[in-house]
User: Fold this.
Amino acid sequence: MSTLKSQTDAQIEKSRQAKPEFMKGVEDLIAQAKEFKTGNDAIQVAAKAPSFELPDSTGTPVRLDDLLARGKVVVTFYRGDWCPYCNLQLRALQARIAEIHDLGAELVAISPQFPDGSMSVAERVGLEFTVLSDQNAQVAGEYGVAWQVPEMLLDHMRKDRNLDLADINKGNGTILPIPATFVLNADGIVTWRYVDVDYRGRAEPDDIIAALKAS
Assistant:
């Protein structure tokens, strides 16, 4: 079975071949973000995770405290259903959801998309976990993984992909979450995390499952 990294690497190479100049610009932006330690404010292992209440794809509020009352929780932040790397990630997690549940954990995936939009990804991919809407990336900010998207990327989304994030998210169209995943124990303490400012990198399901077994 291929790893999530092998799938995202294939997507990266496909993008490089299609738009080499643009992808060179992306590489430069990511290098700058790493140099300025973007993402270093993300909550650390052993910290108490910020509580939240967010609507699911039907608009029903979901509280982290209620999820923790049932056991461990995996919280993963993604950009939206328009992002090919996010869709690879969500499908990879769906393929291992039974194992996550067998370890006594719930999985929630959070993006800034408006609830009506997040419904589409849940239906299309056939997800068996909860997709939540974090408009304006407020919860992402509390977890230290909100990112001001550089104008170069916003311009690419508007002109080359016909994406208007303000319309998709029904809110701030310039802030997205850094792809990040946190494993929380039943007390809401972070026992493992993955944070990478490179929006193409994602936590491997194998590593998430290993962290759940160890927590």
User: Anything to note?
Assistant: The beta strands are 53-55, 61-63, 72-77, 105-111, 130-133, 146-148, 175-177, 180-184, 190-195.
